[in-house]
Input
Amino acid sequence: MTPLLAVRGLGKSFSGNVVLSDLDFAVHAGEVQALVGENGAGKSTLIKVLGGVYQPDRGELLVEGEPTRLRSPRDALARGIVVIQQELSLAPHLSAEENIFLGHFPTTRFGTVARGEMRRRAAELLDSLSIEIDPSVPVGRLSIAQQQMVEIAKAISLQAKVLVLDEPTAVLDEKRVATLFALVARLKAQGLGIVFISHHLEEVFRICDRVTVLRDGRKTGEAPIGEIDQEWLVARMIGRDFPAHARQARRFGKPALELRGLSRRGEFEDVSFAVHEGEIVGLAGLVGAGRTEVARAIVGLARPSAGTIRLHGQDVRIDDPGKAARLGISYLTEDRKAQGLLP
Ligand SMILES: Nc1ncnc2c1ncn2[C@@H]1O[C@H](COP(=O)(O)OP(=O)(O)OP(=O)(O)O)[C@@H](O)[C@H]1O
Ligand SMILES: [Mg+2]
Output
């Protein structure tokens, strides 16, 4: 079967740094293809080539078997290739229906937007995808999960044949992931080819049919999902076998940061832990468990209602992020584009 979209011998460099080399990759109709690899392996670069954002330096790109040049994302869109970036790109002040039809509004014979028809078609579309969203609400007021659904609906309204999802689950809680996966399954049944990027390997086993592994811009493995296991994947991602119990006794320095009984009414309660010099501490929990709220309290973005913070053995009061920065605490926000940068 001719793949919907393929690259052969793809090479891409940025100012002399080879980011992708000699890469073959294909997406077929009715298939969910996983793309996995460590940070910096080249996954996003590959899908930017597929989506017309970057031009390949070497190799060829084939759309339904035909060698094609995609000069821009608009070009890719015209060929039915839609890439949904991790950072969503909807217009927040426009409604879901306006976002869906932005760039291809139904028009009246006077050339104005046919609002009634737009609403009807948006409702039909959302309904056919079992997406429960009021199409007239500005998307800025929707949850991230709902915004993602709107982006996917937009892709479908553009007659997408290939849908690429770059880490779509990174921002979703468990229940929303299930909703997204149900939608992916429906689109697959409709014959779309889907590329799914995720760092959560269990998700790859849950919804993907095939997997391609990248390491340092090269393909290190490709297989039907039924023929492999997690160890196979990890070995190809990191380039060696990963011993199941690799943890050695390590030595850390003095406590650098200590939280004692830190609480913030309605958000988290009695949180205590210490981070030592040279140590990485993971803060785990489901979405909504309060991890971000704890981090925000540490950097002075929210004031704790009880408890203390010690830095290198001294009690400190951190009233604002400026103070945190002066004390040598940096905060990389969860939503880097909206909260971490002034683009
Ligand atoms: N525009 C660019 N200019 C220069 N280097 C780039 C550019 N885009 C990506 N790179 C480099 O290419 C390599 C691959 O990056 P890419 O973003 O494709 O990785 P990734 O697999 O998507 O990683 P992650 O899992 O962190 O999203 C990295 O070393 C990155 O620094
Ligand atoms: Mg990436």
